[in-house]
Amino acid sequence: MSDRQVPVYVDTRRIFQQEAVMGGFVELERLPRFRQSLVSDEAEIQVELRFSEGDSGYREIHGHLQARVYVACQRCLEPMAIELADQLSLALVKDDEQASRLKPELDPWICPEIKLVLADLIEEQLILSLPIVAAHEEGHCQADTGAAELTADTGEGIEEDVKENPFAILEQLKKSD
Ligand SMILES: [Zn+2]
Fold first, then answer.
1. From the CA of 158, how far away is ligand 1's center (Å)?
2. CA of 141 relative to ligand 1 center, distance in Å
3. CA within 20 to 30 Å of 109's CA: 75, 82, 87, 163, which one?
4. CA–centroid distance, residue 71 to ligand 1 (Å)
5. CA-to-CA distance for 18 and 162, rounded, in angstroms?
6. pLDDT of 33-47, one tens digit each?
């Protein structure tokens, strides 16, 4: 874990030429749109970014992000911690037209200026990496109403177990006697 903060922005005339590598944390207050998806300001967000001129003819940014944040469980609406982890491979482009010509393994990042705001880029990647539906695991959710629902969900699993190992069930029956 790095205790350095990622710079607010970088100068695109230099950073790619220098093949800079930077790692560090990003404060949630710099990510207002991402923050709207969260239910707590308790968040750990770490990124590593590698800048290069790239083989694609475009300036590229590769790296990864890792975050631990709290979102609302979609079943019970209570906070739940989730881990986000994502790789990123971006190419800096001037406009949509350039973006449409990129090879598929690169995602476009439109930046016609010399100032590249890193928080915007990181925020976008974090939003993309959020799960569409987040919910507590079975049995850990306030919305779990009890036996009926559990049996319905795991019924198939129990049948599988019986087929694979009938003796386990016999053991259980003996114990419960
Ligand atoms: Zn829940």
1. 24
2. 4
3. 82
4. 10
5. 62
6. 999 999 999 999 999
Residues 28 and 92 in one domain: yes
Closest alpha carbon to 6 in 22, 18, 19, 30: 22
Helix (H, G, I), strand (E, B) or coil at 161: helix
Strands, E, within the chain: which ranges? 9-11, 21-25, 44-52, 59-72, 79-93, 107-110, 115-117
Cα-to-centroid distance, 29 and ligand 1 (Å): 26
Q: Are residues 39 and 125 in the same domain?
A: yes
Enter the DSSP assignment of 73: -
For residue 77, the CA-to-ligand 1 centroid distance in Å is 6
Residue whose C-alpha is closest to residue 29's, from 21, 20, 16, 38: 38
155 and 82 within one domain:
no
**Sequence letter at residue 150:** L
Q: Which domain holds residue 36?
A: 9-129
Is residue 3 in a domain? no
Overall pTM > 0.85:
no
- Give me the number of domains the chain comprises: 2
CA of 124 to the centre of ligand 1 (A): 26
User: What average pLDDT does the chain have?
Assistant: 85
Q: What distance in angstroms lies between residue 128's CA and the mean position of ligand 1's atoms?
A: 22
Distance CA 115, CA 53 (A): 16
CA of 87 to the centre of ligand 1 (A): 28
